[in-house]
């Protein structure tokens, strides 16, 4: 197991295993902050521009100042260079984290104009087990303050994922408060029937996944039928094919839904080929 890690914090490379963050940081005390997970490929950080766009959008959605994009890009470049200098020919997962910085122990944020905390961490990419899913017993609130934002307040995802693991699945799938299909704890969900791939619209409360966005765009360019549509959560159990998308794995077929086997769909497999080809040809689409 490759347990190497390269870390950058507030302007410099640091020891990833040494204490670095103050215990008063608002990201630590109340989960107030945003993050991105970026796939580091041999060609560089994949879709970095889209990830930074979403990082800024999530910060605005929380009412936080946006991190300086040039600084984030410099930090990613420093970490990428260090990862490769330390023998990191394999792919890596880059985690970009932004918080408002140190504050009090309560929920009141640091004063406006505080410098904030910016961190970038690289760790070795991990192999994924075949995707199996289980419905979360708790809904996603599509009208909540965090809907559609990639925030550090990730406890509901962790709880749903732990429940899925107890049920023998690798991923949890959320419905929303209206009983509609929403998204996965760490992924976007696509359903496939005989004619098309369908994913819930962002108004369902789903995160605006970068891979989701690329699948929608690239499928249209390649003539593969794909669209957004509100769907009942129960559709997860009735369709013949299910797929999930995530930055760490592209698009992958789901092989079981709540213990019932599913075959990879032909459109899912076709889209996986398109994604692999286009990701190789354009590292920052």
Automatic annotation (TrEMBL):
The keyword Transferase applies. The lineage of its organism: Bacteria, Bacillati, Actinomycetota, Actinomycetes, Micrococcales. GO terms for cellular component: cytosol. One of its GO terms (molecular function) is transaminase activity. Belongs to the class-IV pyridoxal-phosphate-dependent aminotransferase family. This is Branched-chain amino acid aminotransferase. It comes from Serinibacter salmoneus. Keywords: Aminotransferase, Transferase. GO terms for biological process: carboxylic acid biosynthetic process.
